[in-house]
């Protein structure tokens, strides 16, 4: 993670996120997942509690929200050309730091259980599968099911203590 600078996204940075997300989603398309939701537009991302980015232009980002009093990692994407350089790990560390600053007890996320760069990767970085879902996190999981994300694999909730 040396040399990776994580910062809060500017309005200009938010405009770059869809391209990073689309490029990262190509990894899923290669696995046959062709019906992912479209990348969120900048105005929608601007409503998040916090958006963290790496690079100019942006090569990785994390979208954080407040859910059940915790910090929730709604999205983490790194452009494939910039993977394996510590960017994702730096974004995770910054998410945990942001949670600590606001007194949250943990950072949560929802992800695919069996995709190598999803739950197994998060587990290597200190996240554990949890069934301790508050009402807001339960609602997010239900919304993901409505979007059809569970058709392509088992989804799990994970948490990392702050």
UniProtKB/TrEMBL annotation:
Domain spans labelled N-acetyltransferase: 4-162
A GO molecular-function annotation: acyltransferase activity, transferring groups other than amino-acyl groups
Secretion signal, residue range per the UniProt entry: none
Keywords assigned by UniProt, alphabetized: Acyltransferase, Transferase
Keyword Transferase set for record: yes
A Pfam family hit: Acetyltransf_7
PANTHER family: PEPTIDYL-LYSINE N-ACETYLTRANSFERASE YJAB
Name of the protein in question: GCN5-related N-acetyltransferase
Organism: Geodermatophilus obscurus (strain ATCC 25078 / DSM 43160 / JCM 3152 / CCUG 61914 / KCC A-0152 / KCTC 9177 / NBRC 13315 / NRRL B-3577 / G-20)
């Amino acid at each position: 993670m040396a040399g990776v600078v994580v910062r809060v996204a500017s309005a200009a940075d938010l405009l770059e996120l869809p391209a990073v997300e689309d490029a990262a989603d190509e990894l899923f398309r290669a696995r046959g997942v062709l019906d992912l939701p479209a990348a969120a537009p900048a105005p929608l991302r601007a409503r998040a509690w916090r958006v963290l980015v790496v690079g100019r232009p942006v090569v990785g980002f994390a979208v954080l929200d407040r859910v059940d009093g915790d910090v929730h990692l709604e999205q983490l994407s790194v452009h494939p050309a910039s993977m394996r350089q510590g960017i994702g790990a730096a974004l995770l560390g910054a998410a945990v730091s942001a949670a600590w600053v606001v007194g949250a007890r943990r950072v949560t996320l929802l992800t695919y259980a069996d995709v190598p760069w999803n739950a197994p990767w998060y587990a290597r970085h200190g996240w554990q599968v949890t069934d301790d879902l508050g009402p807001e996190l339960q609602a997010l999981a239900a919304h993901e099911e409505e979007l059809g994300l569970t058709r392509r694999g088992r989804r799990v909730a994970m948490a990392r203590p702050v």
